Automatic annotation (TrEMBL):
Residues 6-104 form the DUF6249 domain. It holds the Pfam family DUF6249. InterPro entries: DUF6249. The keyword Membrane applies. This is DUF6249 domain-containing protein. The chain crosses the membrane at residues 6-23, 56-77, 83-104. It comes from the Bacteria.
Length: 111
């Protein structure tokens, strides 16, 4: 499978929404400055959320477990390589997000 072409296409099409977002944000901020409004209204408080860090940590652990299990399935079963890796990455990534959801819900209930 030719990964270079796939990565190039995905990269190209992911940059288009980013550029549109940045141009729109620039126009919006420029209009606020022209009206004499404060730009700090657009900037929210930047705080490091413990839950957000936990979410990404659990997700990355789930993806790593998916890659590991996919490798084991590829080596010891007759399952196709792509199927083994992708199915396990999505399965364990989804499970990781469900685990995070249950942890976040319990934390919200205690607050």
């Amino acid at each position: 499978m030719e990964w270079t072409g796939i990565v190039a296409i995905i990269s190209f099409f992911s940059f288009i929404p980013i550029i549109i977002f940045l141009v729109h944000r620039h126009k919006e901020r420029k209009a606020l400055i022209e009206k004499g409004m404060d730009i700090s209204l657009l900037q929210g408080e930047k705080k490091c959320s413990t839950l957000e860090s936990l979410k990404y940590g659990i997700l990355l652990i789930g993806l790593a477990a998916g890659i590991l299990i996919g490798n084991i399935l590829d080596a010891y079963t007759r399952l196709n390589e792509e199927v083994a890796y992708f199915s396990m990455i999505f399965l364990f990534g989804g499970l990781a997000l469900l685990i995070f959801y249950s942890i976040a819900k319990k934390q919200q209930e205690t607050e």
